[in-house]
Design goal:
mainly beta, seven-stranded mixed sheet, four-stranded antiparallel sheet
Length: 111
């Protein structure tokens, strides 16, 4: 059974940083693309970042230069380092692979 469990969300002031983690189980983690999505209040779900099995990364224009996605295959974990956070980054952030989703973790950026 595939499971994706996110953690690391919270409340932070503008300009602050957070690191999200997503621990995976139930599949061969190292073989799959992993993605972070987010859905802000009143907004559609947005692909934030992805990382291939080989480590190639891609980012939404809105987060380029501020967010970094990485993976540790030994720990079966994908990370999202978020720096220089803005109020518009407020959203529920969810981990995804293929058709499987985590439960999401709330990130709130507010002064």
């Amino acid at each position: 059974q595939v499971q994706l469990v996110e953690s690391g969300g919270g409340a932070v002031q503008p300009g602050g940083s957070l690191r999200l983690s997503c621990v995976a189980s139930g599949f061969t983690f190292s073989s799959y693309v992993m993605r972070w999505y987010r859905q802000g209040p009143g907004k559609e779900r947005e692909l934030v970042a992805s990382i291939s099995s080989g480590g190639a990364t891609d980012y939404a224009d809105s987060v380029k230069g501020r967010f970094t996605i990485s993976r540790d295959n030994a720990k079966r974990t994908v990370y999202l380092q978020m720096n220089s956070l803005k109020p518009e980054d407020t959203a529920v952030y969810s981990c995804n692979t293929v058709v499987h989703w985590g439960q999401g973790t709330q990130v709130t950026v507010s002064s």
